[in-house]
Design a protein that fits this description.
CATH class of the largest domain: Alpha Beta
Structural class: alpha+beta
Largest sheet: 8 strands, mixed
CATH topology of the largest domain: Endonuclease, Chain A
Number of strands: 8
Number of helices: 17
CATH architecture of the largest domain: 2-Layer Sandwich
Length: about 400
């Protein structure tokens, strides 16, 4: 994705995969490329590849749901394959029968037909099996747990639409998900329809099953925790940046009420994974939120050195300029300040009010391979304030960006 086309990088990767599936490039029984192969082929980060694959899965599931709500009794798709590493491959097998293989049984031919024809008859073409062998009919009553199905929205929005959408996306039923997290099915239904917030331990376990951040599914969860040393400043630690749920970055930005501080070299993964990222920043600025973004100076010795350490040479400076291009439409927004820093950056720091994501840098490795620490500010806790002070020290030495001059 070296060329700027105005279309998000993840969408371009998804378009390429979609075209290859439609053309029969991946015949039945073949494997889709691994994440690592797609990263090399398209010259993008793992975040972009994950978003591209997720878009194709979401597109398929969305159309499956339409058929499921109107067709004769069918079974829900099994849990979509979750990538836990860059080498994960997805198999396009044969149609499922009584001994079918769930989602992995979808043929490339059927998938191609669905992508081109809107999945008009996919409910009859597939015999899809849900978790733990649960079979169910489409709900006939909106907003109920009739037959154990996840409530469908119809014309009435659910109080916890994020949770409902995640359950439907991954093919869970109320009974199967309740069993997985050791609660009653009615409890799961109340989480969706009555906006109940589970105990923190259960919320974390449930969110892990869905590959989401618990605070994204239940925004009130963090506010319920008493600001003392019971839980500490560390909410969670992700083994690498690519393991952070995509939804978390955007939900933290959208939840900010006072200030947003971003200290990165390029931070290109943010707009690449979320095309609305810059617009969300602009929206926050117009709401009175102070936003400060410190990019690495693409002409500095520090950026050049870091690029050499990562083995990308001038590629890092190019990524910084590319990131600026994403933000160009919001240059001049009120309460927005952009600056260039020329420091040896040991951590990327993204602060949203009293929550923070810290991405330590590891020598010779790109940032997406390094862990991410999710922090929250508590009374008497030194860790959050230490990184906040780090941002202020770098910001004080940074050179303010002049949109008119382009530097």
């Amino acid at each position: 994705m070296a060329n700027w086309t105005g279309r998000p990088a993840y969408a371009q990767v998804a378009d390429a995969l979609r075209a290859q599936i439609r053309s029969g490039h991946y015949p039945p029984g073949s494997q889709l490329p691994s994440y690592e192969a797609l990263m090399r082929k398209h010259e993008v980060s793992v975040t972009v590849v994950r978003s591209a694959v997720r878009e194709l899965k979401t597109e398929l599931n969305r159309r499956l749901q339409r058929v499921h709500a109107s067709a004769e009794p069918i079974e829900p798709p099994a849990q979509l394959p979750q990538a836990r590493g860059h080498h994960r491959k997805f198999v396009l097998g044969e149609p499922t029968g009584p001994q079918g293989r769930g989602w992995a049984g979808a043929t490339a031919a059927h998938l191609a037909a669905g992508l081109s024809a809107g999945f008009g008859g996919i409910g009859h073409a597939f015999n899809l099996r849900g978790h733990a062998g649960h079979r169910y009919r489409a709900d006939r009553t909106h907003g109920t747990s009739y037959d154990g199905n996840v409530p469908v929205t119809g014309r009435v929005a659910m109080p916890n639409e994020r949770l409902r959408a995640a359950l439907v996306r991954d093919g869970w039923t109320l009974p199967s998900f309740a069993e997985a997290v050791a609660v009653d099915p009615k409890t799961v239904e109340r989480w969706i329809t009555k906006e109940r917030t589970p105990h923190r331990r259960i919320a974390i376990a449930a969110a892990k099953r869905l590959g989401e951040d618990p605070v994204y599914l239940w925004p009130g969860l963090d506010r319920r925790v008493v600001a003392d040393d019971t839980y500490g400043e560390v909410i969670t630690i992700y083994t690498e940046r690519s393991a952070v749920p995509n939804s978390l970055w955007l939900s933290l930005l959208q939840g900010a009420r006072q200030s947003v501080d971003i200290l990165v070299y390029a931070g290109l993964h943010l707009p690449e994974a979320h095309p609305s990222w810059a617009k969300e920043i602009q929206k926050k600025c117009h709401e009175g939120v102070r936003v400060r973004i410190a990019f690495g100076d693409p002409d500095s010795t520090q950026v050049r050195t870091r690029g050499e350490e990562e083995g990308v040479g001038e590629g890092l400076a190019a990524r910084i300029r590319y990131a600026l291009a994403w933000h160009r439409p919001i240059f001049g927004s009120p309460n927005l300040s952009i600056a260039f820093h020329s420091t040896v950056l040991y951590n990327s720091v993204l602060r949203f009010d009293d929550q923070m994501l810290v991405n330590p840098h590891i020598y010779s490795m790109p940032a997406f391979r390094a862990p991410v620490v999710h922090l929250r500010r508590i009374r008497g806790g030194p860790l959050f304030d230490t990184y906040a002070e780090c941002f202020e020290n770098v910001w004080a030495q940074s050179r303010q960006f002049d949109p008119a001059a382009g530097s």
